[in-house]
Specification:
Blueprint (H helix, E strand, L loop, with lengths): L2 H14 L4 H8 L3 H9 L7 H11 L14 H7 L5
């Protein structure tokens, strides 16, 4: 999973809960620009604590696993320029 993918999942979860970027940022003590940058994948360095806080607030779980030697279907579609 790439940072862009994480941002998209965060954005989708936030919107499904009908929470604005501003409301989420305020709840977590972050700026709205930070939430926006994470969702858009434009922040090159994101602190893991921020990501975990956002995930917790939105009911998401961050999973780390050993990288597969074979690409997943999602990775192949992304590489080919198609959405998964």
């Amino acid at each position: 999973m790439y940072l862009d993918d994480i941002g998209l999942v965060i954005q989708q979860a936030r919107k499904s809960k009908k929470i604005t970027q501003y409301a989420l940022a305020t709840q977590l003590g972050m700026s709205r620009a930070t939430i926006s940058g994470i969702e858009k994948g434009t922040i090159s360095e994101i602190g893991i604590r921020k990501v975990l806080s956002i995930c917790d607030a939105l009911g998401l779980e961050l999973l780390v696993q050993q990288k597969s030697k074979r690409p997943t279907l999602q990775q192949l579609l992304k590489r080919d320029g198609r959405d998964a």
